[in-house]
Amino acid sequence: MKINLFRICIFAILLLLQSACSKDENNPKIITASGNVQGAIDEFRTLIGGANNGVVQGSQATGRREINWDGIPDNQAQPNGYLSDFFNDPAQGQTRGIEFSTPGMGLIVSADNSNPTSTPTSFGNINPQYTTIFPPFSGERVFSPLGSNIADIYFYVPGSQAPAVVRGFGAVYIDVDLPESGAFEFFDKDDHSIGSYSTPMLNNGFVFLAVYYDKPIIHHIRITYGNSQLGPDDGNGVDVSVMDDFIFAEPQEP
């Protein structure tokens, strides 16, 4: 009888541990804001903890990485395409442990005001209305997939191709007009989905979404930009959106 009770106790403890782990993965800390999003961004930075680790190669014990797109040179911005591993390739001097892909034609970063080809800012070269619809949150450049409204993010030990995981990720969207038009879906190192989260809505304005887990678990993020690729005008159920600042916890080895 004592042996059976012991086994029952062990089984109960294992169930509690499993439940705690499931709760951790299914109930992360979520931060959202619309309009004035700076306070939410600062809250997320505090939650991550530590300093901005910039372009230091290798995983650091604490801190975060950030992208505001304004470090992109003209030859990586419109009318040119953007290299998907720009922010992880040591040759670029911008190693932050993040790479991008899309099921569409490619990835693009908007031109700035002083670009040598006089390309309109905020993807005005794709649609003239975008210059006013997509004002940058910081600096002058914004980011989007081309030929799709989907972009995929993968994390690596900065400066290498060793897969990494992060505790949290947040980003600024611009012009989210419809429900489900801005969303993150998170995946673990085995590419199992661990949750999907939507942004607030704000026409012609800024919204922020950040999701933070108690442990490093995120390896891949699928980002939805509106419900249509860049090109069509807004209206009649069509919603296009772009993104500015990205903030994420330090990439760590799984």
CATH architecture designation: Sandwich
Order of helices and strands: HEHEEEHEEEEEEEE
Query: Major sheet: size, sense and barrel closure?
Result: 5 strands, antiparallel
Low-pLDDT residue spans = 1-23
Shape: globular
- Quickly count the domains: 1
How are the strands of the biggest sheet laid out side by side? 1-10-7-12-2
What name is given to the CATH topology?
Jelly Rolls
Strand content: 25-35%
The count of DSSP E runs of length 2 or more, i.e. the number of strands, is: 12
**CATH secondary-structure class:** Mainly Beta
Tell me the helix content. Answer: 10-25%
Total DSSP helices: 3
Distance between the termini: 42 Å
What average pLDDT do the residues reach? 90
Structure class? alpha+beta
Rg value:
20 Å
Signal peptide: 1-22
Keywords: Signal
Protein name: Lipoprotein
Organism: Candidatus Opimibacter skivensis
Give a structural overview.
Residues 1-22 form the signal peptide. This is Lipoprotein. Keywords: Signal. The protein has 254 residues and is of the alpha+beta class. It has a single domain, classed as Jelly Rolls, CATH 2.60.120. It is 16% helix and 29% strand. A hairpin with a 5-residue loop joins β8 and β9 (193-198).
Give a quick summary of the entry.
The protein contains 3 helices and 12 strands, in the order αβαβββαββββββββ.
